[in-house]
Amino acid sequence: MRQLGAAGATEEAFRFQMSNVQTWMSAALTDEETCTDGFQDVADGEVKAAVYARAAEAKKYTSNALALVNTYAAAGTP
Asked: SUPFAM superfamilies of this UniProt entry (predicted)?
């Protein structure tokens, strides 16, 4: 994001890049949900619990990062 500002990005270029970032991060959240869907039929155990815990952790960080990007994008050009 700093690179956009340092490169003198136009408002149009900034919005385009932010839209791309938001799209990719939203897709990552969806993928994290899909990851655990495949384990619904797996018996409870250590492996299943570990996968669910790691996916939940990744989802938390991705969600927080997306919220920061959304706030930054809403503020306008860098």
From this structure: Plant invertase/pectin methylesterase inhibitor (SSF101148)
Query: The tokens 């797996």 sit on which residue?
Result: 42
Cβ neighbours of 18 (radius 10 Å):
21
Return d(Cα 69, Cα 63) in angstroms, integer: 10
Give the whole-angstrom CA distance, residue 36 versus residue 78: 37
State the CB neighbour count (10 A cutoff) for residue 66.
Answer: 17
CB within 8 Å of 11: residues ≥ 6 apart: 76, 77
**Torsion angle, alpha carbons of 57, 29, 26, 22, to 10:** 20
For residue 9, what is the DSSP state? -
